[in-house]
Design brief:
The protein is mainly alpha-helical. It has one domain. The strands form two sheets. The protein has a two-stranded parallel sheet with strand order 1-4. A two-stranded antiparallel ribbon has the order 2-3. Helix 4 runs antiparallel to helix 6 and helix 5 runs antiparallel to helix 6. The longest helix has 29 residues. It is globular, with a radius of gyration of 17 Å. This is Ribulose-15 bisphosphate carboxylase/oxygenase large subunit.
């Protein structure tokens, strides 16, 4: 039996309604306040992501066998990172790298706003297997948010190294 917890729901809604979150939820998002934007088509190309924003998927035909980096969190990053797209104007590599660094700094600020790190949260979960269900769910939700931010930073790093022009 399969249970559908309403497709296209972010972790905060899953947590609110059902008491759980997912570390690889492709619908989760981050809020960015700066003006930095990366080129959407280039970002998608680096990770072999195809489809429309509501239907992004990893194109297995174009991907290397055994590459497991692209998961729901990378697809969520593709949906949530501020992007621009103009098929007639190619991105300028120096400006794209500058935008990547600015977005990584914003991600680091988002992480710094938490009182604990993802490793500390994981240790807390591992150290208290008998924790109340609500406490465990809250820690997991916080951990999943941090893991999404960390995965976004890594994805931006990889993108910066492999920008396709």
């Amino acid at each position: 039996m399969t249970i559908d917890y309403m497709s296209a729901q972010k972790n905060d809604m899953l947590m609110l309604r059902y008491g759980f979150s997912s570390r690889v939820n492709p619908w989760d998002d981050l809020k960015f306040s700066g003006n930095a934007r990366i080129h959407l088509d280039s970002f998608l190309s680096v990770f072999n992501i195809s489809g429309l924003p509501d239907e992004y998927y990893r194109n297995e035909v174009l991907s290397n066998a055994g590459d497991t980096f692209v998961d729901g969190a990378v697809i969520a990053a593709a949906r949530t990172l501020p992007t621009w797209s103009d098929r007639d104007i190619p991105p300028i590599p120096s400006q794209e790298r500058k935008a990547v660094k600015a977005l990584q700094q914003e991600c680091k600020k988002l992480l710094a706003a938490y009182a604990t790190t993802s490793k500390q949260d994981q240790k807390l979960l591992d150290a208290s297997p008998e924790a109340r269900r609500t406490l465990e769910a809250a820690i997991k939700y916080r951990l999943h948010r941090k893991l999404l931010i960390e995965k976004s930073i890594l994805a931006l790093d990889i993108y910066q190294e492999q920008i396709l022009f």
